[in-house]
Amino acid sequence: MHLASPQDSHALGIRLAALAQPGDVIALSGPLGAGKTSIARGLLAALGLEGEAPSPSFAIVQPYDPPEVRFPVLHVDLYRIEDPAEAEELGLDDARTDSLLVVEWPERLGEAYWADALWLALEVAPDGARALTARVPAAWRDRWLQI
């Protein structure tokens, strides 16, 4: 998929919000400035968040709960995680039962940790656009066709 601008990334987030549900994990991978947070912000806005969602870089986990959003969402940024063992303290496994997890820098915990995630990898093209590749798990196959 080709995302020509930050607005395209935001719009993808909006489309994802229409299809995501509690228990899902959306993993957003790519270098700094690739548009991961733009996708997350579009998704959160479409779920009802008013105002711009802060990047969770320093908090690591930014929770959103109803009525702020339609259903519970954890926006997670693992950039500062050095050792996968540190993630155990975040309680992500427990949160997966009733929340949507939107995870930036998922590779910090290894791809196996997110085996059932919709994995979206962004690359910055020479023209500044973003190339998005998706690894679509079984739970997302029918929904992904609607994107």
TrEMBL record:
A single Gene Ontology CC term: cytoplasm
- What are the subcellular locations of this protein? Cytoplasm
Cross-referenced Gene3D superfamilies? P-loop containing nucleotide triphosphate hydrolases
**Could you provide one GO biological process annotation from this protein's UniProt record?**
tRNA threonylcarbamoyladenosine modification
The reply to whether Cytoplasm figures as a keyword in the UniProt entry is: yes
Q: Which UniProt keywords apply?
A: ATP-binding, Cytoplasm, Magnesium, Metal-binding, Nucleotide-binding, tRNA processing
List the Gene Ontology MF annotations in alphabetical order: ATP binding; metal ion binding
Q: Specify the superkingdom.
A: Bacteria
Task: Cite the Pfam families for this sequence.
Answer: TsaE
Classification via PANTHER family:
TRNA THREONYLCARBAMOYLADENOSINE BIOSYNTHESIS PROTEIN TSAE (PTHR33540:SF2)
Report the family membership: Belongs to the TsaE family.
NCBIfam families linked to this entry: T6A_YjeE
The entry's protein name is tRNA threonylcarbamoyladenosine biosynthesis protein TsaE
Its ancestry begins with:
Bacteria, Pseudomonadati, Pseudomonadota, Alphaproteobacteria, Sphingomonadales
